[in-house]
Specification:
With 170 residues, the protein is mostly helical. The protein has helices at residues 2-26, 55-64, 100-108, 138-150, 161-169. The radius of gyration is 23 Å and the shape is globular. The structure holds heme C.
Amino acid sequence: MVTSRNGIVAGAVVIALLSVWFFRFGGAQVPGQGTGHGDHGTPAGWRPTWPAGDPARGRDVFAKYECFSCHEVRGEPFAVPPDAGNVGPELAAMGPAHEAEYFVEAIINPNAVVERGQGYEAADGSSKMPSFNDTLTVQELLDLVAYLRTLRPPPPSSGAVGEQGGHAIH
Ligand code: HEC
């Protein structure tokens, strides 16, 4: 019975450690509760702020990582996405639609939100968007997000006539 007693003791130790972890860290991460923040002078109602980036450098980052190989950006002269099976959403329309944190999540955790039925997901349901987390630097991410936020769809008169005509035919 030594073995089973050891097993019970080991189980109790694991439960105790998990409890300590939860109350020390898990509890403090519950949004809106702010538990523990006061201990070191964090302001009430604290929320993370996203630092400003440089949109011009972000455009270079977009080109460097060839984001255009899957994403059209209307109004930009990047190469046309070559492989229709990998194509993600057009991004110029997204600029006004989302705040910085949305773009951050889309880039560092693409599986968090995947629009279904658009060909965006792989066979296992995950996003076709690859991970750049091992290569993109934090500064590159800041700049890239700043760039995405400046994007605006070009006005209808600026060369999008063919595209609109194509829609009108239907
Ligand atoms: C292999 C193709 C591929 C590449 C390369 C790629 N993406 Fe994506 N991306 C996708 C797909 C597919 C989606 C839609 C599914 C999703 O939201 O994860 C997407 C979604 C996004 C979205 C969210 C759009 C929305 O509708 O909410 C952003 C922003 C984005 N990508 C930016 C980038 C940036 C920046 C890069 C380069 C660092 C990049 N992507 C590279 C395929 C790609």
